[in-house]
Amino acid sequence: MGLHTIVIHGGAGVIQPSMGNRDRLDPCHQGLREALDAGFLVLDQGGSALDAVTRAVASLEDNSLFNAGRGSVFNENGYHEMDAAVMRGDSLKCGAVAGVTHIRNPVLLARAVMEQSGNVFLSGKGAEDFASRIGIPGETDSYFYSRERWNQWQEVRKVHQDPGKGPERFGTVGAVAVDQKGLIASATSTGGMINKIPGRIGDSPVIGAGTYANNATCGISCTGYGEFFIRSVAAHDVSCLMEYSGLSLQDAMRRVIFEKIPSLGGSGGMIGVDAQGRGYMVFNTQGMYRGIRDSSGRLETSIFGDP
């Protein structure tokens, strides 16, 4: 039996050391640590990887520093549209939601879709109606509002900037884990890109693109310019490279992030864990909010540095 491990990310993109200071970066590290601790506690007490990734992602959704849940960015029309997905690696069961506007924790709704709906993917009003029927909490617009996000949106609108370019345009949170019984699970949640076209859906809720888990190979959660991760079916491609080409998790992740995604013109990163509890965090951008904790005592959070 290998390690029980959780790996998380809080988004990748144009994140330069000169953009940050201790007043900003310390809270980011704290938020990452809180999410790691929440998920790892589940694993360390013998709980499931699915519970661990759900708990970790919900923690990041509740933190307005990260672009998911409460910290979601504004779209072109000035409101929030959130996406999320979860997947378990034993049965390959999964659930996803897209374009929800008033759900406090989209990751909880994605899990409910998997476990209670008989479906895989719900969107928009249908997803929110389902949430209401089963008691998933909602929030008013004011819950998702922050002055920082508003100011970021105003800056982008002034220059009519491509929503996939510029400082901190990428924003997603995610977690992957393997538990003491060998279950691998993945979860991803996002508020999308600043000033995105209403109705735009990225890779985060697309199973196989931004989120994937398979006990035979790995669990993956992606972050970056989602269109390129969808076109390359990035998360599933890592699993296929392991299953059919015999690559290690690290080598498979690096091939996708450093070769396949850039060849299409995209950028971003991903986190992964394999059945032995080996966790990796790979990105081709200037930074990625990330962290890992495992049963060997490894515990770290990072933003800059080598991928």
Characterization of the model:
- With 307 residues, this protein is α+β, with helices and mostly antiparallel strands.
- It has a single domain (5-296), classed as Glutamine Phosphoribosylpyrophosphate, subunit 1, domain 1, CATH 3.60.20.
- It is 36% helix and 24% strand.
- It is built from nine helices and twelve strands.
- It has helices at residues 22-44, 49-61, 106-117, 124-134, 141-144, 147-159, 226-231, 234-245, 249-264, and strands at residues 5-13, 82-88, 94-100, 121-123, 173-178, 184-190, 211-213, 218-224, 268-274, 279-283, 287-294, 299-302.
- The chain has an eight-stranded mixed beta sheet with strand order 4-3-2-6-5-1-11-12. A four-stranded antiparallel beta sheet has the order 7-8-9-10.
- A hairpin with a 4-residue loop joins β7 and β8 (218-224).
- α8 (234-245) packs across α9 (249-264).
- The longest helix is centred in the first third of the chain and has 23 residues, at 22-44.
- The chain is globular and about 50 Å long.
- The model is unreliable at 163-168 (pLDDT under 50).
Quick one: biggest sheet?
Answer: 8 strands, mixed
Number of domains: 1
Architecture (CATH level 2) name: 4-Layer Sandwich
The span between the termini is 27 Å
**CATH homology superfamily name:** (Glycosyl)asparaginase
Shape category? globular
Order of helices and strands, N to C?
EHHEEHEHHHEEEEHHHEEEE
Unreliable spans are 163-168
Count the E strands. 12
Q: Number of helical segments?
A: 9
Class derived from helix and strand content: alpha+beta
- Share of helix, binned: 25-40%
Rg calc: 17 Å
CATH topology: Glutamine Phosphoribosylpyrophosphate, subunit 1, domain 1
- Which strand order does the major sheet show? 4-3-2-6-5-1-11-12
The level-1 CATH class: Alpha Beta
- Mean pLDDT across residues: 93
